[in-house]
Every structure is written in C-alpha cells, then in structure tokens.
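Replying to the earlier thread about multi-chain prediction with a worked example.

Input:
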Amino acid sequence: MVKGHVRILCLSLLVISCEQWVISPDPENTPEQVFEYLWKDVNERYAFIEEKNLDWDRVARDYRPKIKQDMGQLELFDLLAEMLFELRDGHVNLTNSFNRSRNWEWFEGFPNNYNENIIQENYLRRDFWASGPLLNQELGEVLYVNYRSFSQTIADGNLQALMIRAQEKKGLIIDVRNNGGGSLRNAEKLASCFVEEDTEYASQRIKNGPGRNDFGPWESMVYSPREGLKYTGPILVLINRRSYSATTFFAQMMRVLPNVILVGDQTGGGGGTPAYGELPNGWSYRFSVTQTIDKDGKQLEDGVEPGIKVDMARQAEINGRDSIIDGAVNYLENL
Amino acid sequence: MIMVLRKTVLFSILVLFFLVALSIPSSAQSEGQLILQTGIQSFYNREPAFSPLIYSGERSLSTIAFSLKKLNRSDVFHINFGYGRTFNKFGGSMENLSAGLLTMTYYHKNKSAEKGLHWGWSNLNGFNWRSHNGFPNYSLRTDYFTAFGPALRHLLPFQWKKQQFQWTNNAYIHGVGFKIQSDFIGGEPRGFTQEDRNLVTKIWSSSDWFLLGKDWSMGYWSTLCWQLPSDNSLGFQYRLQLARVDGWQPVSRVASTYLLVLNVNLW
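Result:
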C-alpha cells in the first residue's frame, strides 16, 4: 500500500516539476529585452520589409547601441517609436498609457483637397439626411453622400434609404476624402449597393512564418451584392491622401466597376491589415502583417490611383466652394 | 463561435450517452456512477502570438463524468468545460475557454477494483479558445489536440471516526496524438481558408503530430471522498494539469483546480 503511494507521489512530483518546462516565467522587463523583442517581432511578422526595401538589420545596428540599461520610460518610448517610424507605415503604432507613436507621412506634404466647413455649410447645408453615418444631400440631379469614417457602422436601413433616394438621380457622388478607415465590413456593405454579382477586387496574402518571404497563398477578396435595391448608374468616388486603410480598400472595390470613376488624389494606402502585440513591459504595438494587391499586381499599401486626378482650386475654396464636388456634379449632370 | 460551442457540448453529451448505452447490457457485472464536479481553476497561459507575458486568472470549471467499473477494468469519461478571463501583470486581458473529453481506463485483473495501484491509459480531446480583449484584429486563437498515453491511479479506502472515506490519486501523461492549431498569425489553422478544399481535406492538411517532448499534456488529480449513507459520495478534488502545444506559436498552459465532487451510483 505504501509502495503505491510512493509511486503516485513520485509521479505527481514529476508532474509538478514539469511546470517550469511548460510555462517559463515572464521575460525580463529591461530596455534591452524590450528592444530585442520588438525588433525581432517586426523582423518576423511585418509584411513589407522586402517590398519596401527596408534594411531591418541596419536598423538593429543603428538603434541597438542607443539602448542603455538605465534609460527612462520616455526615452525608451521615443527610441522605439523612432525605430518603428522607419517602416513608413500608417498602420504602425506603439502605444502606452502616456503616448501613441504614429507615422503620418502618407498625407503630410500633400494638398488637403478637403474642407469640411465648406461641405457642411454649402453642400450638406442644414437639411441634409443623416442615414446613419451616411450624410446625404440632393445637389441638383445628383445625390451627394459624405461618409467620414468606416468605423461608423452602416445599418441595412441606412443603405435602403440611400438607395431609394438615389434611384431617380442622374448620378451619385460618394465622398470618402479624409476618411481614415475603420472596418472593412462597412466598406463591403457600402460597396454591396453597387453590384449585381460577386465581385473580385483584390488579392491578399498573410505572413505565415518568420522568414521575410514566408507568406500564405494569394487569396481573392470578393464582395457580394446586397439584397434589395441597388444603384448601377454613374458614380464618382472622391478620394484624397487622407483616405486610408479601409477607405483604400473601398476605393479599390469601386474602381473595378465600369460605372465608377475615382476623382481627386490617390489614397494614402494602408493596404496591410495590422496585427497587434505586447512588449515585456506591457506596451502594445501594431504593424501590417498582410499584403494586398489589385488585379494588376500593384500594392494597395502604395494607395489607389484616381481615374481623374484633380486638386481643389484654391480660389474656389476662398469663395466657399469645393471645386472637386462642383466638377463632379457638373460631370454627372451632363452625361 | 457560440454555435460551434453549442455543437461541441451537444456532441460531447451525445458521446457520453452513447458510451453509457454501450455499457448497459453488461450492467449485471458492472457498476455505473455519475460524477458531477464544479469548482475554481487558477489558470496560467502564454500565447506568444499575442504576448510574451503570462496571462493568469481564476476560471470556472465544470465536469460531468461517467464511471463504469467492471470486473477487470474501470473506465471513466469526463466532459470538461472551463471559462474565465485572464490578465497579464500590466492589466491586459483575454478570454479563455476550454472544452474537452478525457477518458481514463484502468486494469485490475486479479486485483481489487476498490483499492491499490492500477495501470491503464488515457485519451484527451482538448479544445482551447482564447480572445485578446485589446486587439481588434487577429485576436482569436484556438488549438485542438487528441492524445493518448499511460495513466495510473491509486485507491486508498479508509475509515475515520466510523465514517468511510476513499482517497484516490490519478496521474496521466499523453505521449502521442494529433493536433490542429491557429496559424502563425491568422486564427484559422493553416490551409483552412482555401476555398477549393473540402472540410476533410482541410482538417487532414492542417493537422500535425502531437509528440511527447515537443508537446506536453499531463495531469495529477487527488480526490478525497466521504461515503454518504445513501451509498453516494461527496468529496473534494485537486487537479494539476499542464499542457504545451508546439507549433508556429507554441502555447502553454498550467491549471490548478479545486473541485467539489458528487458521485451518484446509477446501478
């Protein structure tokens, strides 16, 4: 009897002692460990190292010597943020309780091509319809729709209202300038109003291993028509450099349709879907882990080009007019 | 996700009833027991696809089990369900859910089934799901494995203050089996999103060997039960379970569980 207990006791001690093999303690929370963890994770999971010709090993050589054992939190944050800035990607952020690093080069230095006050006062005016997040107004024989963030959820009722209103119009303007993105689902929902069948618009692949060229297969990105009313008349989609992420995807969804023209400046990009991670000191970060290409093999990360490239006329803006909207209305009314 | 869980639970219950039904014809030579357990689990896990940090917290765990004791062997089938939120030391949180079917078979030919040391084998079908609460994308990870290995138990009946007690110790270690788990970044197992494949092909191409050394699944259970006048018994159980599923992002878990136990004699 005692022998049996001894055997069980030995086995249970073995099980208990295996705990350290199975789950090791948390990594050390030192500046070196934090730096190494972040550099390695970017090296293994970031999708655009080769695509952007980044020398990530050079980045390690440049930044590693700057890490000091006694550096403060602010100093460490700034250094890591600077390192991540080298990725030149709006989907890259380092976040903690006191700051959030970002890269806004994708719109900085380009014309704004958008003035929300003018749109509110002279185009939407006071009697616009707010069909959920889709603000819309009749501009002569054209329906103008302004959607400011794909983070704002579109309900089916909002789309139905929009479709009823659009049916009698000569054309539709969808303004997604300055729309910084949000949920791809909302982009698909809105685009579903303008197709009669499943529509392939891009292909995407995801990192599937630590090697820089470890990717899964390219997979088609398709959106489907909504049930109920749809609009298949002429459409102009207004875009600018601040149209980013899900808005870039929306622009690409619309670009493949024969009745749609993109107007304005190219979108800011954001064709990689970000994944998130945590550092040993609890800070979180994100970066792109997928690549998306259009049917010609062009990366959406570089933005979607407009069919009609046009900037806002400065004099018109001073006079309270948006020359891009005015031109779009004129174009559609004269078709 | 909820639908999948419902299906899993329903399937598990059906399996249990099927096993019970199988055993009924031989009930004249056997004893059947229903075992209900519920309790609190201290759960530690690391999911490197999310974080290098350990996430820990208290989960609830419930088990419904059926024990079938025959002349030469005993079988116990456990269906486990655990759920809870875990945290890292900086406050980040994730939801953790586990469901599993654990079978243990012990042989006692020419031995008493009521006491002593019994060798046998064990199989665990374990499904684990976790969702990081701070990540909008790629926040779901899962793994499933089925693995077999040796099991050992020791039964020690004793009397104290004219009351009958039984102390049971079980241990198992799983050595070989199959596993399916989330890909390097995506939540789906590798190859699962390819539309040109049917489900069987997807499962086959996504599964990998579960091998002791790379992968770990082991447990130690200690149960003290008090025999009630009704011939049922009431008890307390401690479980320590360890698991590591190797792969692109090797996940590891340690669970310490304290359970109240009710054994109901069916026949």
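The first strand of chain B starts at residue 31 and ends at 46.

Feel free to reuse this layout for your own posts.
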